[in-house]
Amino acid sequence: MLDFDINWLAALVGAAVGNLVVGSVWYSPVLFSRVWQREVGISDVDIRSSNFAIVFGLAFALSVVAAVLFAAWLGPDPELGDALVAALVIGLGFVGTSLGINYLFERKSFLLWAINTGFHTMEFVVIGLVLGLWH
Question: What angle is formed at CA 51 by the lines to CA 59 and CA 66, rounded to 5 degrees?
Answer without folding.
Answer: 5
